[in-house]
Amino acid sequence: MQHYHYVFTGSGLSALMTVYEIIMSANFQDKSILLIDENSKKSNDRTWCFWDKSNIFNEIISKKWKTTFFTNDIFIKELEIQPFQYKMIRGLDFYNFIFEKISKHTNITFLNEKVLSFEDLGNQCVIKTNQQEFTANIVFNSIFNPKIVISQNKYPLLQQHFIGWYIKSKEPVFNSNCATFMDFSVAQKGNTRFMYVLPTSKTEALLEYTLFSKDLLPKEEYEEELVKYIQKLGITEYEIVEKEQGSIPMTCYKFWEHNTKNSINIGSAGGWTKASTGFTFKNVTKKSKALVTFLQNENDLTKFHKKDKFWIYDLLFIDVLFKNNALGSKVFSSLFKKGNPVLIFRFLDEETSFLEDLKIIWKCPKIPFINALLNRIL
User: Fold this and answer.
1) Is residue 105 assigned to a domain?
2) How confident is the model at residue 378 (pLDDT cuts 50, 70, 90)?
3) Which of 318, 310, 337, 326 is nearest to 278 (CA)?
4) Would residue 286 count as lying in a domain?
5) Distance (Å, rounded) from C-alpha 223 to C-alpha 209?
6) pLDDT, tens digit, for every residue of 235-274?
7) Residue 257 to residues 42, 261, 317: CA-CA distances in angstroms?
8) Cβ pair 53, 28 in contact under 8 A
9) Rounded CA gap, 155 and 157, in Å?
10) Quick one: 243 and 357 in the same domain?
């Protein structure tokens, strides 16, 4: 069996971002690295959006917005988010960018096979694919196994699930300078449902019909709601240029308890998704950077994770939405109606002080969160 220092099972966002940080650190040139994935990463299968004030991945940002809208069935608010900008990266652009970096390093190999299993034997790890086996000093696993969350009931599981259409319309209805962050004016139907609108010109935009809920919908229901929303915008003729869909786990389940000395779960498989929002890209940039720094100083991966106050906030939010899934619109509307959007974004990025946290939390509906806290205490 061929041996590698590091093996990545799966090559999604978290794996590629971690490899990118390894390359950028320049301290791992003596390490042999293998990425294994049955997906060759040759298609534009997703879009990531995030707010940011740095120049991270500036060369592959496909669109930036300096302002965003928050909307429900009562009010529309334009959010002044400077010094942040809301940014969009297409999946294929990210994959091509990272693999172009990888191609310059002979110590990094990509293998297009399906991972079947991996095991930490104590002195090394064994990884099995559908064609062969490997050994490694360390395994980074990003293949999400929903069974470990579904099989327990201490930490509820919601999904951020969506279908998106990138359309080109006949009518110039979009404001290309302003994205719609959340539009809760769509029918809630007992859930937390909203629309993203990410315009790239007056006639082109990515529209995503999104839910935070326990159960997925039939594909037809997402598409029916997209059609209704397009008609509401005043569009009579349009072309669907691209489609995307996804389901992102939203849970505070303690994934890190499955880490071993020589293996670590990353990405959604490791709880790197922001549980209260399903946002992934910004969280992964931080976690991957922290992990690579950790690797340079430690050799026991069970010591990597640190639980903090934001985990508790997210836990209570998921508890509230799991018990009453229709509350999402009320919670987000209470934050954005009179709240400072820059402070809210910093809070969601887990960069606020406790006093700043209180300014955010105080705007939320009190009773559901107090009940959730009491239930956790008792």
Assistant:
1) no
2) confident
3) 318
4) yes
5) 8
6) 999 999 999 999 999 999 999 999 999 999 999 999 999 9
7) 33, 11, 22
8) no
9) 7
10) no
- Residue 227 buriedness (CB in 10 A; 0-12 / 13-18 / 19+): middle
The answer to whether residues 168 and 244 belong to one domain is yes
Least Cα distance to 345 among 268, 279, 247 occurs for 279
Q: Strand pairing partners for 250?
A: 158
Q: Which residue has the tokens 């509230």?
A: 320
Domain boundary among 303, 320, 347: 303
Pair 315, 173 in one domain:
no
Specify if 187 maps to a domain.
yes
d(CA 355, CA 110): 46
Same domain, 83 and 226: yes
Does the reported pTM lie above 0.90? yes
| Pairing assessment for the beta strands 263-265 and 238-250 based on DSSP bridges | unpaired
pLDDT, one tens digit per residue, over 109-144 is 999 999 999 999 999 999 999 999 999 999 999 999
User: What are residue 160's phi and psi, to 5 degrees?
Assistant: -95, 105
Reference 274, options 238, 229, 317; nearest CA is 317
Q: Which two tokens stand for residue 92?
A: 């294929």
Which is nearest to 143 in space by CA: 113, 102, 123?
A: 113
**Segments forming the whole domain that contains residue 23:** 2-40+112-152+251-303
3-state secondary structure of 341: helix
- 132 shares its domain with 167: no
